[in-house]
Known about the structure:
73% of the residues lie in helices and 1% in strands. It has helices at 3-18, 21-39, 45-55, 61-86, 95-106, 110-143, 148-166, 171-186, 211-229, 247-252, 254-268, 275-289, 301-325, 331-342, 351-354, 358-379, 381-385, 392-409, 414-432, 438-460, 467-470, 472-487, 490-504; strands at 188-189, 196-197. A two-stranded antiparallel ribbon has the order 1-2. Helix 2 (21-39) packs antiparallel against helix 3, helix 4 packs across helix 5 (95-106) and helix 4 (61-86) runs antiparallel to helix 14.
Amino acid sequence: MNIIQSFTYFFSSLGQVITDPVSILLLFGSVMMGIIFGALPGLTATLGVALLTTLTYGMQLSHALVSLMGIYVGAVYGGSYGSIMINIPGTASAAATALEGYPLSKRGLAGKALGLTTTASAIGTVVGMFFVVIFTPLITKLSLQFTSFEFFLLAFFGIMISGSISCPDTPQKGWLCGFFGLFLAMIGRDQLQTYPRFTFGITSLESGLETVPVLIGAFGIPQIIQVLSDNRAMPKQNKIDRVLPSWKAIGRNIKHIVRSALIGVGIGAVPGIGEDIAAWVSYGTAKKTSKHPEEFGNGSEEGIIASETANNSCIGGAMIPLLSMGIPGSPPAAMLLGALLLHGIAPGPMLEVERPGFTLTVSAILLLASISMWIIGILLAKQVSKILKVPSQLLMPIVGVLCIIGSYALGLKAINLYLMVPMGIITYLITERGYPIPPLVIGVILGNMADANLRRGLMVSKGSLLPFIQRPVCLILVIIIIFTFLSGTSFFKNFLSKLKGKIIK
Length: 505
């Protein structure tokens, strides 16, 4: 598909959504729902995508895509409401925003803070969309040259890097969670020889674990338990003044917007990392490079813009590996992958062959979602903020019921409930002990990819491991994986600190 055809298809996709009243209604409705999910503490973007996935099961594909992308974009942005109004981030990605947004709110500038976050989030989403359009086809062409060995190493690297970054102090915990997810993916008949593994004679497990119920349990149940066990009172909200942002403020921070958008896209493209890491890295970078670092923590425009631009541009970054290689870049993107598979879409190198223009359709929906998010954020900020007065303890039982209904509705299988509830309890117990969930989810998602490609590659090479070092891309990935592993060991860390000390001397 050349540039002219790409532009034609992109604008055609825009036109199809704009001219369809049902799509427009679903777009604004899902974005609004996403903002509510993001604003309320305990209701995350991942949980929002998970619950909506079950509702889109019977929709046609175009309407399902609009709904899922809308709630994804809205929820990542919506976390800023809790951060600014009551100093309780609605999502982990909005935690950095609270450091600057709440001080502004206490000074009577809550409207200004919301206006900045709304505009920065919209710009970040649009920048991410451009990178999806530009880089996804390039990476897809590269991945078409990959063999089974490269795909196995990519999946393995995704689990390793997710574990390392999700739990930087003790990456071993992240790796254990990742490999536990990898084990869960092995349950059922294998893809190559259809031999049942770890089914214990239960026929319902022979088809493997359903991804969506497992993810709903992993993200939904722990969040419900944590919120219900947290009895803290909601702080008093400050009044909202004029929400429409000052375009002069946006103009003088344009360099921070560009830098933060690039950071968000880059981090989003790393498997399993997510919007919260992007926001903190961007916020830290803005503080280090600022001419007035003393303003940070007291209501800095730069800090708000940096974190909010990065966490929304991360959406586009997370879509790049998802669409081109079938590897999700963040937990919400992992949930989106499950939703796409549910609708018969298999992201990866063959996606554009099987469904030409699908990437451009997703990009067009991202653009429209960012526009609708900005409109809702500017016009309905005062109304949406009132939702924060509803106690989370009242909402969580409703969310629990929705999790149960949603899991059962996927095929009307009772086994899905038996998967969701134990999975939720297990993930809650391990999170209480400091083990991260994203690597586990990435392991579940990428497990089949790693298993099938490793075994297929060994069959082709007749059991030889030489292709791991004979193929250039394989060798590079092997070196990166070894370095990732060594960098997480105390011996390697001590060696580097001693080496650094000698160099300084």
